Write the structure tokens for this entry.
Amino acid sequence: MFSGIVERMAEVVAVHEDRQNKDFTLRADFAQELKIDQSVAHNGVCLTVVRIEGDTYTVTAMKETLDCSNLGLLKVGDLVNLERSMRPDALLDGHIVQGHVDQTALCTAKEDADGSWYFTFEYEPKGDGFFTVDKGSVTVNGVSLTVCNSRERSFQVAIIPYTFENTNFCRIEPGTVVNLEFDIVGKYIARLMQNYKK
């Protein structure tokens, strides 16, 4: 379980293909604090640490994860948002995030807001509860954000300078593919309503 509050960015230093899996090795200043089998969110995707060497560690993503996220597009030099799992006694500064990315979206616009930025993302809904609501929560590349200008297949988020500088939003431009995790509460309500109609 995560909160969508990104702790660090890590640089991808190696990508290795193993049949339909991909191993990603990342350089992070807290690598020595990690443990084998620990869960860490990478651009919002919960992955297991399988190897630690110095200031780098390695995680593995299987085909299903690669197919429904932007991890398959990662290359050496890319920056990845990281968050370790939330402790039970921690403050929930973001919102409840599972680390189970629902799908990807495409950045279609980046607008200067005189010190901050508005990013627009478009997506094709692929399941029950895969939608946004104004002032609701959504996770983009693992970042817990508040939705504005929600539409059927698009939404905007407002990014303040701190978030821009300390997450990989600093590299998102129109055409960039990002990971989305929709609010778990909305997904449960959508499923309940679907069952109610039956």
In short: The chain has three helices and twelve strands.
